[in-house]
Amino acid sequence: MYYIGIDVGTGSVRACLSNYSGKIIKYSSHPLTTWSEYGTYFMQSTENIWNSVVLCIKDVVDGVSVDKIKGIGFDATCSLAVVDANHDPVTVCPFGNKERNVILWMDHRAVGEAEHINSMKHEVLDYVGGKMSPEMEMPKLLWLKKNVQQSWEKIGKIFDLPDFLTWKATGDDSRSFFSRSLCSLVCKWGFLCRNKGDCNWSASFLKEIGLSELLDNDCYKIGSRVLAPGHPVGMGLTESVANEVGLIPGTPVATSIIDAHAGVLGMIGCNGAQENMFEKRLGIVCGTSSCHMCLSTGPKFIKGVWGPYFGAIIDDYWLNEAGQSATGKLIDHIIESHPAYETLNEKIPKREIYAYLEDLLEKTAVNVGCSLEKLVKDLHVYPDFHGNRSPLADPDMKGMIIGLTLAKDELDLAKLYLATLQGLAVPVLLPEENESVLLGSAILARVAAGHSESLTAAIMKMFCSASSIMPNVVTKRFHDAKYDVFRSMLDLQRHCSVVMSKE
User: Measured between alpha carbons, how far is 332 from 286 in angstroms, rounded to an integer?
Assistant: First the structure.
């Protein structure tokens, strides 16, 4: 028996075929198109995304007996997708361009709207760390209402991208079946969930922030039937989609989950950890951004840390989530914006550049007779180039670099790369299965297929092994000093902001 896991990330769609015990047998990836304006607008297309999903599924099922494929699980970025009453794309771009109907998660156009919502001090904000981020959906919807009125009036349905995928796969459009994922709604939409028996859209919140029309027709545009991750959606794959991807109609489709949260599913059970270990682990899922997530059996209200979110990953557990808005994206930016990159990229494939830079650093450290990390003792990077997600919850924070010179060669690039990693990294338990996110979606599929009674039970059957990477105690003093500089850079930036705000 096999399960299909599908992950729609920022830059690509990926799919895997997993066996009954969680081993990934086949893998496929297809790139996505992203449009960017002003450095704050980032948009995608549901048509482009779905076409890539189809290609990936066809890749991983090629040559496989389809009667052995027992379920499909989706995860995706927490991006906002809108369609009209006929299910055609509705542009989110003020310049038109119909196909651009997805506001990507990292889009920061709604900073002002987030500030307006946060000024309301509503109870809903207590469950997102005290502040809504412009990366969340309500600020983006308020921005659309204010700035693209023609699109706002055309909107028939509004989705978090993971929910769009399950809706597209199942044709789940009847009043009795039309559903949304609890994961997406509590984490990104302000869906108020005080405990298992008390989850709902807050009418007072939507009215106060100026989006009361979303309550119309039993919240039809944003959904009122909410399911836990892994719960079967509708009647499974529609006949048309099954024919499109080469599977059997009715193949179970799991209620979706956000991509980083799927990563937690895929690795929290590493090394066969039992359920009583779940609260003792912090999951770190890294990609374009990074998410730091931990589970608890009771709500924990922490200023600047998202949550507590009830049932967002595993039923009966609360989730708290921190992280950084740009990590992988920042590393790429640092490398690709350096003067040495163009020449380097001509002689080395992009995916090999990291290894090349690390090798150059190791050789340089040997040549000068010092430990590798001390090559950058005078070079410091403060990494909030795309705002601070947590614990400051400040989208206006900027990146900082101290220690630049006129050098522009490969070694200078390598040092800047290392200093950036030092500004981002933590000690880890590293899963041997590299595709934890895809494994998480396959775990959802197992539950939807009825092969495990709960996500916890499925995790116990599909866990991976992991190796520990421990901090180097010899260099602890050096990194403590680097962290002191990091905090000083934060204080300096805040001081500069206060000084210049008076001008």
Answer: 13
